[in-house]
Hints:
By secondary structure, this protein is mainly alpha-helical. The protein has one domain. The protein is about 80% helix and about 0% strand. It contains 8 helices and no strands. The chain has helices at about 1-20, 25-60, 60-75, 85-90, 95-105, 110-125, 125-135, 145-165. Helix 4 packs antiparallel against helix 5 (about 95-105) and helix 5 runs antiparallel to helix 6 (about 110-125). The longest helix has about 35 residues, at about 25-60. It is globular. The two termini are about 30 Å apart. The model has no long low-confidence stretch (mean pLDDT about 85).
Amino acid sequence: MSDFFLPMIIIALILYSLYKKKNAYSSFAIGAKKSFDLILTTFPYIVTILVVVAVYNASGLNIYVSQALSPILNFLGVPPELTELIILKNFTGGGSIAILENIFQTHGVDTYIGKCASVIMASSEAVFYVTAVYFSKTKIEKFKYLIPLALFLNFFSAIFACFICRFI
């Protein structure tokens, strides 16, 4: 079924453009041109986030921050093994997937820690990445409450995820 999904979408779009009497090829070319402009606009922000994550990991700061936050998170019911995942998830989705894979290999997928890690990944967002990419193209410049609120909600969702996983 999934092998036919993308071709069916393409065929549906071509049929829709014929129905609307639009040139599908030129519409595609215009969309591709607009996406190139979007890439040029967002590229510096994406590179900045990737550099920040690389420096954060290479400096060893991730270990110190994780060790500092582990007792607090443990008190709130979050296993200490998930601290690095909770922190890094705010910066990058790809890096946190690597941590998630390590958690699965170390603790297993059907364990309490594995289930908590899965729910945390599904219920949180890469705040800084999303902010950089989405708001780089908009005129919004005031992030006074946006980022702290998003970070708090990611933190709260991790605590709540571990609470829910106790009953699964």
